[in-house]
Design goal:
single chain, alpha/beta, D-Maltodextrin-Binding Protein, domain 2, 2 domains, 9-stranded mixed beta sheet, 22 helices, about 50% helix, globular
Length: about 450
């Protein structure tokens, strides 16, 4: 069954992957030829205004010697799954067209086979500047294979203008900011009497949906993965999924259409249909600036902690992007120089001020100048305390694909929650057995 599912999934994105690879090839072919003596670095990421600022700054500093050329993966054109497959296929082909890639923090161990170990390029003092939670995802099998570029955390957004216009809206805001359980959050739908979409979240068959689940799981049991591994057929495993299923099918707090949403479509629906709440990342108030759906509505977005399951604790999932250098690159020294530039204090500040990515350097959170300039740092430091990580294992992306397949079936009432966690556990165990046999 799993082989059939994998084939269906592969055929579903095959056209986009092929087009993406063609795009990368044409991009390398048609950009202008480098000037004599200039080393050109190809850097693949979602290129925000902050990225452009930093790339332009670096290119000015190194004019005539090094030039960084961005390869853009826009949010609205590529989901994280699609971007992962395109980059993996490019590197798998031993191509030297891309020198530096930004990878989702849960991709690192998968990409390590094609990327250069970085430990020899960084001193202990350089790494000591980086906050431990940002380095968590950067280790391969006992060696440093990536360095963090930025961090995000999951959060709840609400439309302040809409919420304040409702009876009890101000009290609801105070309640939300002090942490609220999912049952109390659902009660707000009736208390407030809001007629539009109440809670929107990405629930398509992909990694973003699994972030919701793992968040619930680690809220109930912080050491879940060290205790149970990827066995989800447990009381906590079932309860974590049941809460999400109930949002749609019992509490009617979310519209059924969310089962087709990744991040960008969920945000578009939320804005265009005057949604009241949406699950997102801490960069959402900047992520869609280049293609805004409605600037006036977006101006009213505010953040609050995500609700949590009773008996659990408030948590927020860490996300973000790490930098990895292709082992096939012929420009490794120049690439490392650019990476170290991105990790400078002033560069990290640009990523925050222009894109709202959390800086990964300790100085940003401790420096009195930063604290005066950005009062919101105090709130960020508190949210960091609730941060939890997805498990850093080599085959996590395979396991996530299995989980999202069965869990999305439960969300759409095709199978029960008990059947979903049992089937996901069974297929992951089979996958692990095959890996050992290989």
């Amino acid at each position: 069954m799993r082989t059939i599912r994998q084939l269906k999934w592969s055929s579903g994105i095959l056209i986009l992957v092929v087009l993406g690879l063609v795009y990368l090839g044409l991009y390398s072919l048609f950009v202008r030829q480098p000037a004599p003596g200039v080393t050109e670095i190809y850097f693949a990421d979602r290129i925000t205004d902050a990225h452009r600022t930093l790339i332009e700054r670096y290119n000015r500093l190194h004019a005539g010697r090094i030039r960084v050329i961005p390869v853009d993966f826009p949010n609205l054109d590529f989901s994280t799954n699609e971007r992962k497959e395109i980059l993996a296929r490019s590197l798998r082909g031993a191509e030297d067209g891309i020198d530096l890639i930004a990878v989702d923090i849960v991709w690192v161990k998968r990409f390590a086979r094609w990327c250069e170990p970085l430990g020899k390029y960084f001193t202990a003092r350089e790494l000591e500047r980086i906050i431990p939670d940002a380095l968590y995802s950067c280790q391969g099998d006992s060696e440093l294979v990536a360095v963090p570029l930025d961090m995000v955390q999951s959060t709840l957004y609400y439309r302040e203008d809409l919420l304040k216009s409702l009876p009890g809206g101000d009290e609801a805001i105070r309640h939300l900011q002090s942490n609220i359980t999912w049952p109390d959050f659902v009660k707000l739908r009736l208390t407030l009497g809001y007629q539009g979409p109440f809670y929107v979240f990405p629930a398509a068959d992909y990694e973003g949906f699994i972030c919701n689940y793992i968040e619930n799981l680690l809220s109930l049991k912080p050491d879940y993965f060290s205790t149970f591994g990827f066995n989800f057929d447990t009381p906590e495993g079932r309860r974590a999924l049941q809460q999400i299923v109930d949002l749609l099918n019992k509490d009617r707090a979310s519209p059924q259409v969310v089962t087709s949403f990744t991040e960008a479509p969920s945000y578009e629906y939320f804005i265009k249909n005057d949604g009241l709440f949406i699950r997102g990342w801490t960069t959402y108030d900047k992520d869609f600036n280049d293609q805004p759906y409605d600037r006036e509505k977006q101006r009213h977005l505010r953040k609050a902690p995500l609700p949590y399951i009773p008996g659990g604790s408030p948590v927020s999932l860490f996300g973000g992007w790490d930098l990895m250098m292709s082992q096939f690159s012929k420009k490794k020294e120049a690439v490392v120089d650019f990476v170290k530039f991105l990790l400078r204090d002033d560069s990290q500040e640009v990523l925050f001020s222009e894109a709202r990515y959390y800086p990964v350097v300790k100085s940003f959170y401790d420096d009195s100048t930063s604290l005066r300039k950005y009062p919101e740092i105090a709130g960020i430091r508190e949210l960091l305390k609730t941060g939890v990580h997805r498990p850093a294992v080599k085959d996590y992306t395979n396991y996530s694909k299995i989980m999202s397949h069965y869990f999305s079936l439960a969300l759409r009432n095709k199978i029960t929650v008990a059947e979903a966690v049992e089937a996901a556990t069974r297929d992951i165990n089979a996958d692990q057995s095959l890996a050992v046999a290989r």
